[in-house]
């Protein structure tokens, strides 16, 4: 199975039907805890010497299939599923920079991520050095300090669809012995796999395109398993850890000594999932698995429709600018990293007042006005007021994110119906 291709893995990876009554669909283990059998196996499971489940905050068979499946799709060593994309981001940041340090990140990221980095993480003594152009390598070099612990970027930005040069960013990170963390939510592993270009950790809001049906909040952390956490900058992986040793036998161990190249992901589970507790429930994991089965077909059609809509918008005289790097001519980063397309999300700037933008939003009939992306339903939103509300005006301005920018997330409806819907709404809005 492990040498199978993407389309096979998304349906089969991580699931062994023989151990589940040959159920074709992954069963939902809707249980808080698991019997330990007898005191012997209980001892072994508790010590981590035997594989098994004991309590669903730490592990659950349905959730485990999702974790192994995503790890396989991304080519990572392992993954941990959590209760939301924000939990995945928070846990990765804390697991990397716990105790204090700095992280470099661009300002073109998801609103809640930027809010967390600007206003919350500093309270935990994790400071962010923010910069504006994701691929401004010179600026990154200037920001690097002795206590810089990571570089964090989004592969495809929201809503500008700017592309991060992952290979180059990974190179800079590794020259400085720090990891590159990539939020790969927009492309999903179907369109882009950051590990192939040197990224060390990937996070997802699987609320979005991975699940694809807008019915779950969920997140994933995926570990490439290649980064050397023993290089002296990350003591949390090399210090002795009480729960990993055996007090009675006088044995001590650290995450790195015990788990080697899985140290990061095991620590994320044992410290952050187990102790901070943002767990993904088995039913939600089942829904994500269900959505994931059709990811390739969904995204292929959504990319094709999004490209046609971008072309239509470019010809509309009430549209000032279209943000969809997928249809840029001569975009080397798109050519290099995104041969199958950049995804289902695009944006455009309406030529008119904000009052007219409200009219447009209130006039769509096929599109749904709501703050989400990556759904089978096509969605529309004014990010400046809603999804990117947390971003200070000065930063919004640098990214041309004014209140005339409208974001679209393209679903699986008929492309003509979607274009006609936008066209009639734009015409109503354009009328004075
Ligand atoms: C939605 C989103 C998140 C946050 O995920 P939740 O599942 O809503 O917590 C993070 N990053 C990106 C790029 C997103 O679109």
- Give the distance, in angstroms, between the N- and C-terminal Cα atoms: 60 Å
Strand line-up in the sheet with most strands: 1-7-6-5-4-2-3
Classify the oligomer. single chain
User: What class, by secondary structure content?
Assistant: alpha/beta
Bound molecules: pyridoxal-5'-phosphate
Net shape: globular
Helix tally?
A: 16
- Give a quick account of the main beta sheet: strands, pairing sense, barrel closure: 7 strands, mixed
Task: Count the beta strands.
Answer: 12
Helix amount, in percent? 25-40%
Note down, in words, how this protein is organized.
This protein has 432 residues and is α/β, with parallel strands linked by helices. The protein contains 16 helices and twelve strands. The strands form two sheets. The chain has a seven-stranded mixed sheet, sandwiched between helices. A five-stranded mixed sheet has the order 8-9-12-11-10, covered by helices on one side. β4, α7 and β5 form a beta-alpha-beta unit. α4 packs across α10 and α14 packs antiparallel against α16. It is globular and about 80 Å long. The model has no long low-confidence stretch (mean pLDDT 96). The site of pyridoxal-5'-phosphate has 17 residues, from α4 and α5.
